[in-house]
Amino acid sequence: MLQLARSFGSRIAKKGFHFLPDFKLKCGLEIHTQLSTQNKLFSLSTNDPFASASLPNHHTSFFDVSLPGTQPTLNPEVVLLATKLAVALNSRINMNSRFDRKHYFYADQPMGYQITQHYSPFAKGGFLELSGSLDTIDEDFKRIELVQLQIEQDTGKSVYRGSEGRSLIDLNRSNVPLIEMVTQPNFTDLKQVRAFIKKYQNLVRHLGISTGDLETGAMRVDVNVSVNEHPRVELKNLPNTSSILSAVKYEYQRQVELIQSGETDRYSGFSETRGWTGSSTVKLRSKETTIDYRYMPDPELPSVKLSPSAVQSVAQSMPELPDAVLRGLMSEPYNLTLKDAKILAIKGNGHDQLYTQTDLLKFYLDTFNCYSELSGQRLNPKLPTNWIIHELLGNLNRLQLTLAKAAEAFPPQKFAELLMLIQDDKISKASGKLLLFHILDETNTSSLAQPVDLGALIESFDLNTIEKIDMNELKEICIGIIDEISDPKLIEGIVSGKKKNSLKFLVGQGMRMSQGRIKPYLFEQAFKDLLEVKW
Ligand SMILES: Nc1ncnc2c1ncn2[C@@H]1O[C@H](COP(=O)(O)OP(=O)(O)OP(=O)(O)O)[C@@H](O)[C@H]1O
Ligand SMILES: [Mg+2]
Ligand SMILES: [Mg+2]
């Protein structure tokens, strides 16, 4: 079986992938998202499913381990976060949703059932809109409709110790709150699937309701795939976006080949659940043999009663949604590119510890406002963008400094003053970079006099020489030197960055001609500007 799957996988790899016009792909997603609440769904134990490595079975109450006689009590914070998500997704919130028991036996589910919402889920309907301008899809707009949102418990974890021939059970994750969001099967190609996952992930992060990380399992995506009007196959165990996309591609081709060879009947419509091995999908179970979960209303939990005014006040407390933030940043007065707007407004992986997206965006907007007041008519929107995205963020990473700490020593007002010094040629770009790095570095290692006195620093580092020299003279000297160079390869080497050292030669010429009046870094910057050197 596995052998067969492997040979199929290599066939696909050899043939390359493309959609065939006669075979229409249809996909629907089921996404489970762990909510970042303080406590678990039905108990007061700490919600920290990632403590497991060092502290297995640590965050567990009597209820989480299913001691007889313990009863669930709903955590209201879960309802708050679920409401935020439902509002953001334009779902119709059920003012009276209920919990049901889904029965199955598994060692990491000691109660013998999972509490979920089967008959009367938290919210129904709703949609998430993808757009060609913001989301890298081929269509101008693509609306993905949602079936429902339901609140449910996560299960514990089984840890297999193959060598010891046994399984260990860790219940830290047991009873962690989840939202299962189910879409309609509206996806017709891979770009839409990729864009939706990114967008949903960003939304839950933006609303502060989940870390949204696929790698840790905080967000888990199952994909249902069908071709033409044949039954769907459900794909599980997809640890990251590239697995999701590869699995859909593989599954599409597998199903197309089954249809082409007329084998669909023999496979009784091949409706089944399959897992992803990393290179192929393999059958986990068929839908026909699905266990009957014997859903029944949970008699120990009352229904979740909400009032329209409660939902409304949650809606009013919510931040502006990501698309609106992006569109705002891409229009007057900011005029950011989509790429830059996303850097400011959408959380990437990796910089989590240094700043939150909300703080970064606020720092940018505050700096922009201060700078715009100082610069008046001469406002250049690219200046704050470049200096915050490239210089500031670059330095925070390099120094492993948090934005909060950096902003304490160097708040938006000061940042705007620095931008003005650069704009007015009071200091060169190179000096500006030096100054910023120095300030941030000092913040990191010792206590810098606060607030930072830019004027004093410029004086002490002798960075303002640029004022005393005639910029036109500098430029003319540089043009003269470049004209004198007979070997075009030398200039080419500098521009391409292959011969960075040749720039020193030009600077040397300049120093000689200006008899040392003009500092080398000024020449360096002037040559770089003239030659439009990017490095
Ligand atoms: N013809 C189809 N092709 C592809 N996907 C489909 C098709 N019909 C339904 N789907 C998708 O299948 C999924 C059904 O999910 P749902 O949670 O309702 O049921 P389930 O998978 O049977 O149950 P469970 O939650 O136990 O996995 C949805 O994402 C839906 O979009
Ligand atoms: Mg399913
Ligand atoms: Mg489901």
UniProtKB/TrEMBL annotation:
Main location: mitochondrion
Localisation per UniProt entry: Mitochondrion
UniProt KW keywords: ATP-binding, Ligase, Mitochondrion, Nucleotide-binding, Protein biosynthesis
EC number: 6.3.5.-
Superkingdom of this protein's organism: Eukaryota
Catalytic reactions of this protein: L-glutamyl-tRNA(Gln) + L-glutamine + ATP + H2O = L-glutaminyl-tRNA(Gln) + L-glutamate + ADP + phosphate + H(+)
Span of domain Asn/Gln amidotransferase: 369-531
Cellular component GO terms, alphabetical: glutamyl-tRNA(Gln) amidotransferase complex; mitochondrion
A GO MF term: glutaminyl-tRNA synthase (glutamine-hydrolyzing) activity
Record GO biological process: glutaminyl-tRNAGln biosynthesis via transamidation; mitochondrial translation
PANTHER family reported for this sequence: GLUTAMYL-TRNA GLN AMIDOTRANSFERASE SUBUNIT B MITOCHONDRIAL AND PROKARYOTIC PET112-RELATED, GLUTAMYL-TRNA(GLN) AMIDOTRANSFERASE SUBUNIT B, MITOCHONDRIAL
Family: Belongs to the GatB/GatE family. GatB subfamily.
Function: Allows the formation of correctly charged Gln-tRNA(Gln) through the transamidation of misacylated Glu-tRNA(Gln) in the mitochondria. The reaction takes place in the presence of glutamine and ATP through an activated gamma-phospho-Glu-tRNA(Gln).
The protein's assembly and partners: Subunit of the heterotrimeric GatFAB amidotransferase (AdT) complex, composed of A, B and F subunits.
Protein known as: Glutamyl-tRNA(Gln) amidotransferase subunit B, mitochondrial
Organism whose genome encodes this protein: Lachancea quebecensis
Taxonomy of the source species: Eukaryota, Fungi, Dikarya, Ascomycota, Saccharomycotina
Primary gene name: PET112
